[in-house]
Design brief:
Strand order of the largest sheet: 1-2
Subunit structure: NDH-1 is composed of 14 different subunits. Subunits NuoA, H, J, K, L, M, N constitute the membrane sector of the complex.
Shape: globular
Structural class: mainly alpha
Keywords: Cell membrane, Membrane, NAD, Oxidoreductase, Quinone, Translocase, Transmembrane, Transmembrane helix, Transport, Ubiquinone
Catalytic activity: a quinone + NADH + 5 H(+)(in) = a quinol + NAD(+) + 4 H(+)(out)
Radius of gyration: 21 Å
Oligomer: single chain
Distance between the termini: 23 Å
EC number: 7.1.1.-
Number of strands: 4
Main location: membrane
Length: about 475
């Protein structure tokens, strides 16, 4: 058994730092909020630095008897997970402000979820995958109901917990069937079993239930029902976190298990993925039309974008995997930018601004913020020349090269339909009269992130196509 502890140094930094922050919080109380906030950000920055310094093109190989792997695929995912988690922690600092409910446990909970997500993208065993998934999920349930005096937050936490428990049961049942009919929990062993024998009824049921559980984690239709309610009810910084880091972790976890463990059965699971992709694109586009809450709208936008990423998964092969990785990287930046703009807006009474009608005339009262939000909306819609166009083009090219031309055509049509609600926000900000005086939070670091992310998704982002594409290709190659 290989005990390569340097390969898991980023996780060790987070794991050993977490109890120190918890002890600080327990001894100092709410006075420790700033300490745990910036301490957690420092831990994530240190883990990212170690991740970059210790990663090698040759990859770390299987670790601890084959339950984990330290490869370029995991490095790629962890970097974006750590980035999104750090931004969600920093953004919450000013959003809660003097709210007594914002305590030192918030960044610690995100840190625990981040450790779970890190394990999810590195797991090469069903057991390890489930341990990481549950660590992330348990912390997420608490975060959703973080504002204990807010009925909507409590409702979001309860819905997330109940539906998440159901999905975990479905996933666990599917994994138990895979183990029962293959005799192993390792991805390589499952792949070997699928390759050497015909797809039996037991294996087929295991495959279906496993993908059903994974679909819940990525918010793919028909297991998307929790997403709009949880996004709306959770505190906006928590929603920012849910829409970014866990989405990357869940999508990369799905990509690894599909390519490494279930690769020989691609003809069987491709049908499931195609259905989920099309259903997510169509429902995510159409259901967002009548939304009046911007967080619910962005929830359906998330479902819609996951549908496009699933087109790359359905394409399969290194090209499809690379397209998914590229898509998720750009998606994280666009989503973080959009939610940071929402976090920056408050009503005159200091309450969060969440209704679409409250964005009317924003270009006249807050022109800079309106311009940034417009850039993120156009980019999410995939309108050229903004950078959000490029990842959609990559997944469509992967589908065409895999012979799924009709899937690419339907995806393109879905892009056109989905553009409506993004353009609706632009129309409200630039063509309607103001209905109030929206206040902008004085958060210099948050504003700096908004400006940086807006530059990345602008046409200047095309300068990143080469390095980001090369990184995605290298990461995808590690799966094959």
């Amino acid at each position: 058994m290989t005990y390569n502890f340097p390969a898991i140094a980023p996780e060790l930094i987070l794991i050993f730092g977490e109890p120190v922050l918890m002890l600080t919080a327990s001894t100092m109380g709410r006075r420790a909020t700033k300490i745990t906030t910036w301490g957690t950000v420092a831990l994530l920055a240190a883990a990212s630095a170690v991740l970059l310094l210790t990663s090698a093109p040759s990859d770390g190989g299987a670790l601890f008897g084959g339950i984990l792997v330290a490869d370029s695929f995991a490095v790629f995912g962890k970097l974006f997970i750590f980035l999104a988690s750090a931004v969600a922690i920093i953004a919450a600092d000013k959003w809660f402000g003097g709210d007594d409910e914002h305590g030192p446990e918030y960044p610690v909970l995100i840190l625990l979820a981040t450790v779970g997500m890190s394990v999810m993208v590195s797991a090469t065993s069903l057991i390890t995958l489930y341990v990481g998934l549950e660590l992330n999920s348990l912390a997420a349930y608490i975060l959703a109901s973080y504002r204990r005096t807010d009925a909507k937050s409590a409702e979001a936490g309860l819905k997330y917990f109940l539906l998440g428990a159901l999905a975990s049961g479905i996933l666990l049942y599917g994994m138990s069937l895979l183990y029962g009919f293959t005799g192993t929990t390792s991805y390589s062993g499952i792949a070997a079993a699928f390759a050497r024998e015909e797809l039996s009824i037991g294996l087929l049921f295991g495959l279906v239930f496993t993908f059903a559980g994974l679909a819940f984690k990525v918010s793919a239709v028909p297991f998307h029902m929790w997403t709009p309610d949880v996004y709306e009810g959770s505190p906006t910084p928590v929603t920012t976190f849910f829409a970014s880091a866990p989405k990357v972790a869940a999508m990369l976890m799905t990509l690894r298990i599909a390519m490494e463990a279930l690769g020989p059965a691609i003809d069987a699971w491709r049908q499931i993925v195609i259905f989920a992709a099309l259903a997510s694109i169509i429902l995510g586009a159409v259901a967002a039309w009548g939304q009046v809450n911007i967080k619910r709208l962005l929830a359906y936008s998330s479902i819609n974008n996951i549908g496009f990423a699933l087109i790359g998964l359905a394409a399969g092969g290194p090209q499809g995997a690379s397209a998914v990785l590229f898509y998720m990287a750009v998606y994280v930046v666009m989503t973080l930018g959009a939610f940071l703009c929402v976090l920056a807006l408050k009503r005159e009474d200091g309450e969060p601004l969440e209704l679409l009608d409250e964005l009317k005339g924003l270009s006249r009262t807050r022109p800079g913020l309106a311009a940034a939000l417009a850039v993120f909306m156009f980019s999410l819609a995939g309108i050229p020349p903004l950078f959000g166009f490029w990842p959609k083009l990559l997944v469509f090219n992967a589908a065409v090269d895999a012979g799924l031309i009709w899937l690419a055509v339907v995806g393109i049509l879905g892009t056109v339909v989905g553009a409506f609600y993004y353009l609706k926000i632009i129309k409200l900000m630039y063509f309607d009269d103001p209905v109030g005086n929206a206040q902008t939070a004085n958060h210099m670091l948050g504003n700096a992130f908004i400006a940086l992310f807006a530059l990345i998704v602008s046409p200047l982002g095309y300068l990143l196509i080469g390095p980001l594409g090369a990184a995605a290709d290298t990461a995808a190659a590690a799966l094959f």
